[in-house]
Design a protein that fits this description.
This protein folds into 2 domains: 61 residues; 30 residues. The relative contact order is 0.06. The radius of gyration is 23 Å and the shape is elongated. The chain contains 4 helices and no strands. The protein starts with 13 loop residues before the first helix and ends with a helix. With 103 residues, it is mainly α.
């Protein structure tokens, strides 16, 4: 009985995939070697890597998705950034209300 591979954590084999690409292997060859299924998994992986690299080069901080873990303490920089964002939002809403004539 052959065991069907359901999901491969492609981020775990990211380094190996990049090496294979440097060697000149095609995306199809890599997908066949690792038994990857789906719509262009190697292409999508490379796209995610490039997108992350572009954000790093642009100086945009990488943020984790989802809810922060228990006991997470914000840094002063994060607090200052949120205060600045909220002040700008309040100013924008105040200007909007003045234009509408509600205040």
């Amino acid at each position: 009985m052959s065991e069907k591979r359901r999901y491969t954590h492609i981020s775990k084999i990211e380094g190996e995939i990049l090496e294979m690409i440097e060697q000149g292997k095609s995306h199809k060859e890599i997908e066949a070697f690792y038994h990857l299924e789906g719509d262009r998994p190697v292409h999508n992986l490379l796209k995610r890597i490039r997108k992350k690299q572009d954000k790093i080069e642009a100086g945009v901080p990488l943020r984790h998705r989802g809810r922060p873990p228990k006991g997470y303490k914000r840094t002063e920089k994060e607090k200052d950034f949120e205060i600045k964002r909220l002040k700008m939002e309040n100013e924008l809403l105040r200007d909007f209300l003045q234009v509408v004539g509600r205040r």
